[in-house]
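Collaboration report, partner site 2.

Our partner group contributed sequences for two proteins of shared interest, and the home lab folded both. The records are reproduced in the order in which they were received, starting with the first partner submission.
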Amino acid sequence: MKKIAILGSTGSIGTQSLDVIRNMENVTITGLSCNKEIDLLEQQIDEFSPEIVCVIDTQQAAKLRERLKAKHSTTQVVSGIFGLTSIAKSGEDLLITAVVGIAGLVPTLAAIEAGIDIALANKETLVCAGELVMERAKIKGVQIIPVDSEHCAIFECLQAGTKSEVSKLLLTASGGPFRDYAAPDLADVTVEQALKHPNWTMGKKITIDSATLMNKGLEVIEARFLFDISPENIDVVVHKESIIHSMVEFVDKSIIAQLGVPDMRHPISYAINYPNRVDTNLVQSLDFKQAFTLHFSSPNTALFPCLDLAFEALKAGGTAPLVLNGANEIAVELFLQNKIRFLDIPKLIHKTLDKHIIINSPTLDEILDIDKWARAQCYEGVR
């Protein structure tokens, strides 16, 4: 019986993970978590009977606790970051990290210390602390299996050769909802427009990141640490159909690509069942009998500077990617609240990065302190 816990079970990746698990045998859900969406979490508790759940919001946690008490449920309800850590360590065989932002870092490290393998859908964990996380995973013999469709694709493609034979990683990007816009068109785009992704259904934060191309920048940073490859050997190509999820070029110039219909349940299933492949009966086949075309182009970094900002932060090293991520989270939040314009997002991030003095090989405490500093600085930038 495989014991699995999910951080962020009420979000897009979390709910799709449960879709996959419903179609599997010999899996027990030991822990689930949410921010404050207790109605959906309660439904998940009724179905999967986890030992423990976490609700980050303490008031909502108290409400859920009373509801479960009335049902005579044995599921324990905890809250806060310490609660997340308890969930992380409950999944003895696998932790699926699907929370958004740096909130996933501490519980992921706790799971690694407990020797639990990680199915990683929280890219910020490696963006903020890639060196620390990968080092601890190596020491503990923990596998980190990517759930992001692009990184899962690369992970699959890498099976075709050895690490020394890899020449380049090619991350594909849909280009987001504004890929065909001209500069003047971006000045007044609305939150509603930015949230209409052409290919994927995702949470608000990641959808805005896709619109600015910051999501691809964060994925570049994640790939650098996940696959131990230099930034110079990572390229981004816009592929609007999202059929090729990413590619690997080897030293003999052969390129291996992973293709499939856009469906996050494939990389989720691959991560849960690795090293085996399982038919979940959920994902459609790509039908080559139906005519379709594949388009490729270079990202327009003049129009979407967040991608360049990510590359620059990665090359600067140390805590620069951490500051990039913290500033971006706040800038996206401000945009979603209609407090800044779409084009202000990269400006605020750039302004915050300019004020930062880089620290190399930071400790966990330094990482958490600098993250708070970056967020405060980004807020200051709009005053």
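Second partner submission, folded after the first:
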Amino acid sequence: MKVIPSEGRAVRDPELRDLLPAEGRDVPRTDYWLRRLRDGDVVEAPEAADGK
């Protein structure tokens, strides 16, 4: 899934040990990222029109 940080939030990627970039990143659907979604730290990016 691709996630982007919510406005005003800085979210650390535990695997890459850096901050999630503003343009977002593909991340695994793990408990960590699902918790970030639930807490409002990130939002799931909309799918591209061509399905990529």
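Feedback sent to the partner group on the second submission included the following. The two ends are 11 Å apart (CA to CA). Residues 2-44 form one domain.
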